[in-house]
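About this split. The held-out portion is used to measure sequence recovery: a designer receives only the structure tokens and must propose an amino acid at every position. Recovery is the fraction of positions where the proposal matches the reference. Here is one held-out target exactly as it appears in the evaluation file.
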């Protein structure tokens, strides 16, 4: 369905919603894209309610207020730009677009699996193999990590880690997911490999765990590094995540998170993948294989050779594509 032409909007008048299920991973990608566009979005957290979630074709013809469940209301005035993600939000995003009579430029981040032709733009990672004229393929997940933010973080945290010996290695540790596991046994094996690297290289680690990291597994991991110099962020005080990425000489990332790997690969630094227990999904296998073929990321084998690759810059590229498509409707963002 083609949207009618719109009158020009100025950066100050352009409105933007981010629509999500409330899951941090997908919502953060939408927020990263809005930031790349220079926009301050209103975040709407809602999902399609039963039975409308199953009656997709009928649902999109109904007012969003009747089909949505969540703490945030979905009511006009509709935004100029909607950035949505999460499978429970697909029908809601299309409902909003239809209610706006196509005036709301609707972007879906990740493969929606259905209704694809009705979105103005779908931003999907290439490993999902989505096909269509409105598909913009990315190398990885959308990330806020870019050169200006890394430079600012390096300045902010340089004195915090200056006592640690080089090479300084950031370790981004994930945890349990539908397909991945990090048991205490697996965590000890991982930690022993890192301890061996520290002993042989004379280096140290900057370590952060995700909310999915089981406390008992992280305790087992940490115990193996008792003799290695480390800085561990335990969730207190300012989050040094960007500082880790900015100041590290290399980055180790567990294989359970496309988002964390994408963040790491946006730095241009050596990135190596720590294996996880469980069965790797086919999409993840394609993701890691493509990065390895490009020389962007490699399995960790005990060393961190120098890197030579084009850093991931998906957010800026998608923002430029959205700006181009909006310009065709005489809508100007002006910040990209």
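Reference sequence for scoring:
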């Amino acid at each position: 369905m083609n949207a009618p032409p719109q009158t020009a909007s100025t950066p100050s008048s352009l409105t933007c919603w981010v629509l999500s299920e409330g899951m941090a991973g997908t919502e953060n990608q939408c927020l990263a894209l809005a930031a790349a566009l220079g926009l301050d979005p209103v975040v709407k957290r809602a999902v399609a309610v039963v039975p409308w979630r199953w009656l997709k074709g009928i649902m999109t013809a109904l007012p969003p207020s009747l089909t949505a469940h969540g703490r945030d209301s979905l009511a006009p005035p509709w935004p100029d730009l909607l950035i949505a993600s999460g499978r429970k939000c697909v029908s809601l995003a299309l409902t909003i677009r239809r209610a706006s009579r196509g005036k709301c430029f609707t972007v879906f981040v990740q493969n929606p699996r259905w209704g694809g032709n009705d979105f103005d733009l779908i931003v999907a990672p290439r490993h999902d193999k989505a096909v269509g004229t409105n598909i913009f393929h990315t190398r990885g997940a959308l990330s806020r990590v870019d050169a200006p933010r890394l430079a600012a973080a390096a300045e902010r945290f340089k004195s915090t880690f200056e006592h640690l010996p080089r090479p300084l290695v950031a370790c981004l540790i994930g945890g349990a997911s539908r397909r991945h596991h990090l048991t205490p046994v697996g965590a000890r094996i991982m930690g022993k490999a890192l301890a061996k690297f520290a002993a042989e290289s004379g280096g140290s680690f900057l370590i952060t765990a995700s909310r999915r990291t089981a406390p008992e597994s992280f305790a087992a991991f940490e115990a193996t590094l008792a003799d290695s110099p480390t800085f561990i962020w335990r969730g207190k005080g300012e989050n040094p995540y960007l500082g880790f990425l900015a100041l590290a000489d290399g980055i180790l990332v567990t294989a359970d998170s496309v988002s964390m790997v994408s963040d790491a690969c946006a730095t241009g630094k050596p990135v190596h993948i720590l294996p996880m227990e469980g069965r790797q999904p086919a999409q993840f296998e394609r993701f890691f294989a493509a990065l390895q073929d490009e020389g962007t990321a490699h399995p960790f084998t005990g060393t961190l050779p120098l890197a030579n690759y084009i850093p991931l810059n998906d957010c800026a590229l998608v923002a430029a594509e959205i700006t181009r498509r909006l310009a065709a409707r005489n809508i100007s963002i002006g910040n990209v």
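Annotator remark: Residues 1-12 have pLDDT under 50 and may be disordered.
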